[in-house]
Design goal:
The protein is mostly beta strands and 534 residues long. The chain has three domains: 25-250; 256-479, Jelly Rolls (Sandwich); 493-532, no CATH class. The protein has four helices and 32 strands. The protein has a 15-stranded antiparallel sheet that branches. Strands 3-4-17-6-13-14-15-10-11 form a nine-stranded antiparallel sheet, covered by helices on one side. An eight-stranded antiparallel sheet has the order 1-2-5-16-7-8-9-12, with no helix packed on it. Helix 3 packs antiparallel against helix 4 (520-532).
Length: 534
């Protein structure tokens, strides 16, 4: 049994440094009452203090015996969110307690998880859903292959059970505990997901989840109303002097979304019904400075076979700001995540310089295609890394209106491969007060003779000297092999057996179509996907 836990966290090579409230080196070492880390506001609770901020890690200090000292991470997300927590010191201290509270949008704390240490790297877990009116609590356990190994229903709103980590990571990586309150479908109430990330010796996270995890689901009375979102996750402790919290994120777009640099990240829902879906949600990254590192990252929970979305940068075409959109993923036959392509946009007062870079995909040239009413009106071949000028004759959005940039990763039947395109997809009117007709419906940048992709991993956008926030919307993604139920990268009978086991016990993972219920429709949909293969 591997119960060693990570006690330090290095910043990953692909994660931009985050410095909040640190204008000088002296302030970087100061004790703070609040700080933005990963774009989310962290506020000290009780008598605790915060800091210093180290990349995406924050140390919570001055923890006493009141049980109220800790940190509140503001998420304000319909999809919930979570963070990594270094619990090594807690599990090695008899009687030490870690408390994780879920606060709804209305300020009510309805879920509480307490981990009471035995001092021998084990603990007693108490899941308390009294504040939600739960009639029972279901705990599902999954092994490293993703198979359901245990499912227990506890009557009443409280469940108590031993917490005995049996944590393993491939290639000798070190496990890092995480906890998150998330909604697993649009109509679902939040559940608690516990597990661990596998962290390499260099400090990189090698994946959002390991397959070993615990999902704790309260059975709630039906209200007929949309499920409430997550306002914040509150972490407090006793029995230890400090607590390290890192890699906080929100679950917008069913992904891991976080801020980079000094950006402040918020989820905004445009739905009038209160139900937030990928079609009505958007991420807004504000507080963009002049470093070029401030922005947002959206990392898919699993390697994706397709993704798409829109990015707006305000009216920067009429400014001198700069922004770069990055796509990372894997080349075919490789397990190493790299930057595959980027799109740099620079404002030139009344024009924009747009430069795609497909060098990560091995392309030396790219094709620029302009469309009007669905018909091609212009095509040119440009050298990779070189840019083009968008003039007001090509893409006219007018002052105070917004150009929309976009991407799509999909299977291209021309090259018979998985690839990524960038595009200027049009204008948004109204958000910035008007605009003019668009001469070209869209402009598409596509690599010529790229190396085929093996999968899609993440999108990130960083800018400098922008007059408006960075916004990401209309994001959709599908995992590389939908029927690969245990996510080991292969489609085998183990996937079928794992799904059948989850389905027979009513496990939440068996909700294959994501409608919040486990029915025969889910079984039929999985069987159909399994028969199609990958």
């Amino acid at each position: 049994m591997n119960t060693s836990l990570r006690t330090t966290m290095k910043t990953g090579t692909r994660v931009l440094s985050l410095f909040a409230f640190c204008a000088t080196a002296g302030l970087a070492n100061a004790q703070l009452s609040e700080a933005y880390v990963s774009g989310l506001l962290h506020t000290a609770t009780g008598g605790a203090t915060l800091g210093p901020v180290d990349g995406r890690r924050l140390t919570v200090r001055n923890i006493g015996s009141s049980g109220e000292d800790g940190v509140s991470i503001r998420m304000h997300s319909s999809s919930g969110g979570g963070a990594e927590i270094d619990i090594a010191q807690i599990l090695q201290t008899p009687g030490a307690i870690l408390t994780n509270k879920h606060k709804k949008w209305d300020g009510v704390i309805n879920y509480v998880h307490r981990m009471i240490s035995n001092g021998d790297n084990t603990a007693l877990s108490i899941y308390d859903f009294t504040g939600s009116g739960a009639t029972s609590v279901r705990v599902d356990e999954y092994d490293e292959a993703g198979g359901l190994t245990g499912s227990t229903i506890y009557p009443g709103p409280i469940a108590q059970r031993p917490f005995v980590p049996n944590w393993t990571c491939p290639f000798g990586g070190t496990p890092e505990y995480y906890a998150k309150w998330v909604t697993l479908c649009n109509s679902c109430n939040p559940v608690l997901v516990e597990g661990w990330y596998c962290v390499t010796s260099s400090g990189d996270n090698t994946g959002e989840y390991s397959n070993n995890r615990i999902i704790v689901t309260p059975e709630l009375p039906s209200t007929g109303l949309p499920p409430g979102g997550t306002e914040s996750m509150i972490l407090t402790a006793t029995g230890v002097s400090d607590l390290d919290v890192s890699y906080a994120h929100i679950g917008t777009f069913d992904a891991l979304s976080s801020g980079t640099g000094t950006a402040h990240l918020a989820e905004v829902c445009t739905s009038s019904t209160g139900e937030c879906t990928p079609a009505t949600a958007k991420l807004v990254a504000s507080n963009i400075g002049s470093s070029g590192q401030d922005g947002v990252e959206v990392k898919w929970r699993r390697t994706a076979q397709s993704s798409s979305g829109d990015v707006t940068l305000g009216d920067m075409i009429y400014s001198t700001g700069l922004a770069t959109l990055h796509k990372s993923g894997f080349l075919a036959g490789s397990s190493q995540e790299i930057e595959l392509t980027s799109l740099t946009v620079k404002g030139l007062s009344d024009q924009a310089y747009v430069a795609p870079d497909f060098s990560g995909m091995g392309a030396t040239e790219y094709l620029v295609t302009g469309y009007l009413n669905g018909a091609i009106v212009q095509q040119t071949v440009e050298p990779n890394g070189g840019g083009i000028i968008l003039t007001t004759d090509q893409i006219v959005c007018g002052p105070n209106s917004t150009v929309v940039y976009g991407w799509i990763t999909w299977y291209d039947y021309q090259c018979q491969c998985l690839t990524t395109f960038w595009g200027v997809t049009g204008c948004i009117y109204g958000s910035w007060g008007g605009g003019s007709p668009t001469y070209m419906d869209r402009i598409v940048f596509s690599p010529i003779n790229p190396i085929p992709m093996g999968g899609d991993a993440a999108l990130s956008v960083a800018g400098r000297d922008l007059t408006n926030p960075i916004e990401i919307s209309n994001v959709q993604w599908t995992k590389l092999c939908p029927a690969d139920f245990n996510d080991d990268g292969f489609l085998t009978g183990e996937d079928f057996d794992a799904y059948v086991s989850a389905f027979e016990t009513g496990g939440i993972d068996a909700d294959y179509n994501g409608d919040g219920f486990v029915t025969g429709e889910d079984f039929d949909a999985f069987v159909a996907a399994f028969e199609i293969g990958c």
